[in-house]
Design brief:
Strand content: 5-15%
GO molecular function: ATP binding; sequence-specific DNA binding
Largest sheet: 6 strands, mixed
Structural class: alpha/beta
Keywords: ATP-binding, Nucleotide-binding, Phosphoprotein, Transcription, Transcription regulation
CATH superfamily of the largest domain: P-loop containing nucleotide triphosphate hydrolases
GO biological process, one term: regulation of DNA-templated transcription
InterPro entries: AAA+_ATPase, AAA_lid_NorR, CheY-like_superfamily, Homeodomain-like_sf, HTH_Fis, P-loop_NTPase, Sig_transdc_resp-reg_receiver, Sigma_54_int
Number of strands: 19
CATH architecture of the largest domain: 3-Layer(aba) Sandwich
Protein name: Two-component system, NtrC family, response regulator PilR
Radius of gyration: 24 Å
Shape: globular
CATH topology of the largest domain: Rossmann fold
Helix content: 40-55%
Bound molecules: adenosine-5'-triphosphate
Strand order of the largest sheet: 8-10-13-16-9-17
């Protein structure tokens, strides 16, 4: 499949009408055409009769399993990527089914509840998987296709795919937006800005509410704003050609770009700090792409998502027969990244035992696969990141000091979005135009709410809010309710999530000595906190774990233990 084959519809297979509708609306908002099937048999029939660019199938349906849909596609050699949608994978749950689906040919899986961002990423991956199949093989050295473990799910990016490697954003846009419209990447940012003119009517009451730092931002109209009468944004949204992933003109972002360029020239380990969604991975990819390693792999590993018992084999690989189930030789992340960059995301979540092994591999520049007597030299540049305070973890003994010094030769700090206030309006306009074309409008109150929100989830949250708002908007006009955000003032400290307010308001349950069991009481408190964190992050478990300062693994375990769906 080429990107143009996304002109073919996507087939959504799910027995629940609500989910089918939601996915259909979302995919259509991405400019994609969609067909649906409410069960396995109809899906097979449709697959026999039509060609699809991608199939998304639920696992459990009344007339069969999503695995049958995957098998049908594979056994008939259909050139259609298929991804499965599973119920929540718990410690004892249905991971096996997801693994089974991957084994028989699905290229990915999603867990319910699905976020819009996940869906978008999945569509991107479908295109990428096919592109890679068509253009492969290019370096690295002979490795097996990195098998995807359910929890680890490393992103193995194709090393020399310049289109994808250079500018993922522009690529998504080219892939997903209406083909004939000039897209944001075809129009220089200044031009977007020039296309936007001041609304004629300026409501004085709204004018007063403008804050000093957005003085450059346009006055606000009370009526819906069409693109040609949208707020005028002065200056351009800075996007340097050599660091296209990092947008913004604020001083902090300029400094980030300067450091990225500088660090790209050297091989020193870089530690990227910053809140969740603030662009740490984008910065890591930018360093890689600007470095002499750009044509070699960039391997991103989410350390918090790998089950502890799989860590060693995932990082270092194994020899066939070294343990039950090791039915073939397999390389680990280090060898996959040979010559390139290994990005250790959420590095604070590495268990201590693994920290020792990692330190050794970094110091020795060599790895030994499980079951292998020989060490193999590896040339890997390490970039690490976490949203946690690594220094505090070193102090508390949860993170090894020696590894900390190894990783943290240079620190790059990503600023939170709320500190880039002068960029905010331009970013909103940019993202809306980029992903949704120029036909989308916004009311003055929605704009006001967006400009005054605190974005604890940073860029990622902004993208999600806009994406959801576009999906919910009536008549292509985003209103304040479509944003579904808590109105949180900009001045709020990062640590003061509304969650704290929520908890204080709720109060602790009464502990009745002699009647209440301590464990039941603590479970109740924990359940309340988890539920609030989930509500706050709109059921994004990764984000919720981050907000609570626990690992994803721990979050999963707790949700499972307390039977929180
Ligand atoms: N400065 C930026 N300019 C443009 N887009 C950005 C910027 N920072 C982040 N983004 C976008 O925000 C989203 C999240 O970015 P990224 O994954 O790099 O964040 P992160 O800090 O690594 O998140 P996490 O801590 O959750 O792993 C991505 O879609 C990315 O494109």
């Amino acid at each position: 499949m080429t990107r143009s084959s996304l002109n073919r519809p996507i087939l959504v297979v799910d027995d629940e009408a609500d989910i089918r509708d939601l996915m259909e609306i979302t995919l259509m908002k991405m400019g994609l055409s969609v067909d649906t099937a409410e069960g396995v048999n109809i899906a097979k029939k449709k697959l026999n009769e039509n060609k699809y660019s991608l199939v998304l199938t639920d696992m459990r349906m009344p007339d069969g399993s999503g695995l049958e849909v995957v098998e049908h596609i594979m056994s008939n050699n259909m050139d259609t990527p298929v991804a499965v949608i599973t119920a929540l994978i718990t410690a004892f749950g249905n991971a096996d089914q997801a693994v089974q689906a991957l084994k028989i040919g699905a290229f990915d899986y999603l867990q319910k509840p699905i976020t819009l961002a996940q869906l978008r990423t999945l569509v991107k991956s479908a295109v990428k998987v096919q592109d890679e199949n068509q253009n492969a093989p290019i370096a690295p050295p002979p490795v097996q296709a990195a098998p995807k473990s359910v929890a680890a799910a490393p992103v193995v990016s194709k090393p020399t795919d310049s289109t994808w490697g250079q500018n993922e954003w522009a690529d998504v846009e080219n892939t997903l937006s209406e083909k004939n419209k000039p897209t944001i990447s075809q129009v220089v940012p200044q031009k977007i800005v020039d296309n936007i003119t001041l609304p004629n009517a300026v409501a004085p009451s709204m004018e007063k509410r403008r804050v000093a730092s957005v003085a450059a931002v346009a006055p606000v109209a009370e009526t819906p704003i069409v693109p040609t009468a949208a707020p005028k944004v002065s200056g351009s949204l800075k996007r340097d050609n050599d660091v296209p992933r990092i947008l913004g003109s604020s001083q902090q972002i300029e400094e980030v770009r300067r450091l990225i360029r500088k660090l790209a020239d050297s091989n020193v380990p870089v530690y990227i700090s910053g809140e969740s969604g603030s662009g740490k991975e984008q910065a890591a990819r930018s360093i890689h792409e600007l470095s002499s390693r750009a044509d070699k792999p960039f391997i991103a590993v989410n350390c918090g998502a790998i089950p502890e018992n799989l860590m060693e084999s995932e990082f270092f690989g194994y020899k066939k027969g070294s343990f039950t189930g090791a039915d073939q030789d397999r390389l680990g992340f280090f060898q996959h990244a040979h010559g390139g960059t290994l990005f250790l995301d959420e590095v604070a979540d590495l268990p201590l035992a693994m920290q020792v092994k990692l330190l050794r591999a970094i110091q020795e520049k060599a790895v030994r696969r499980i079951g292998d007597a020989q060490e193999v030299k590896v040339d890997v540049r390490i970039i690490s990141a976490t949203h946690k305070n690594l220094e505090n973890l070193v102090e508390s003994g949860a993170f090894r000091q020696d590894l900390f010094y190894r990783l943290n030769v240079v620190t790059l700090k990503m600023p939170p979005l709320r500190e880039m206030h002068e960029d905010l309006e331009r970013l909103i306009v940019h993202l809306l135009h980029k992903h949704h074309g120029t036909g989308i409008r916004m009311t003055a109150s929605a704009r006001d709410a967006l400009l005054h929100y605190g974005y604890p989830g940073n860029f990622r949250e902004l993208e999600n809010i806009l994406e959801r708002a576009v999906a919910l908007a009536n008549n292509n006009t985003i209103d304040v309710e479509d944003l579904q955000i808590n109105h949180q003032p900009m001045s709020l400290d990062a640590e003061q999530f509304p969650l704290t307010e929520g908890l204080a308001a709720t109060g602790l349950p009464n502990f009745q000595m002699g009647h209440t069991q301590l464990q039941d009481y603590l479970d109740d408190v924990e359940r309340q906190i988890l539920q609030q964190a989930l509500e706050y992050t709109r059921y994004n478990r990764t984000q919720a774990a981050k907000v609570l300062g626990i690992s994803f693994r721990s979050m999963r375990y707790r949700l499972d233990r307390l039977a929180i769906e």
